[in-house]
């Protein structure tokens, strides 16, 4: 069967709706629910990373399998200083149908879907769509992709004339559309959608807080540098009203402990002083790394004008 008209666009809109605008990760089963013209249509490959349905000239989707911290596969998802994302060929033969399919998607400027594993049991995927294949590095056996705004026409980006601007734009898009949502989904999945501090269980009120800030060189985008936190605890953590010791004990800044105010201050902050985190990931490798907590906790002590321990 040749690719039916409108299938790609319909699939991308359906995923947008099913993920609440790209926020919620989906299981394989949920992705399998997609129908086109009244029939189930498979969007995601079960075996390889690249899905090129039989008869289609261009690939439809790619996937990155979830890896626990310490099991990251090198080269697969690095953003180069050109702001482009990398995706490895299938195997090492450029003529494999899946590799040809991605090359054809590039030539035809077709949007594709990236399923990015963010958790296991069951496997969950962050959906990033559309993304575009814009180049290939045959010596490295990989493709180059961009995650521009859905509305942006990539053919209008003039890479030669405004190289610096284009690189900055692409780097920003890769962060906003790929790395930040993947980090958020990975952290929230590991914490089973609960605030580490207070256990609040509403994803729309939760963030993935970086322990060491994103801009810092230690501030890696890995679950071990993350804590799922509700909005108020996240803000309190970032602004040093709240600190977390490497043994997971929560501390509230001493001047706040003496303040008298309403229930948010009393229950939300003062009463958790000295308590342990209520939720940490079940899987040990996903838990916050002690040296990162220590780094942030020392900053908290400094900000609270206490001696650094
Ligand atoms: Zn909370």
From TrEMBL:
The keyword Hydrolase applies. GO terms for molecular function: endonuclease activity. It holds the Pfam family HNH_2. Keywords: Endonuclease, Hydrolase, Nuclease. It comes from the Bacteria. The keyword Nuclease applies. Residues 195-244 form the HNH nuclease domain. This is Putative restriction endonuclease. It comes from Brevibacterium marinum.
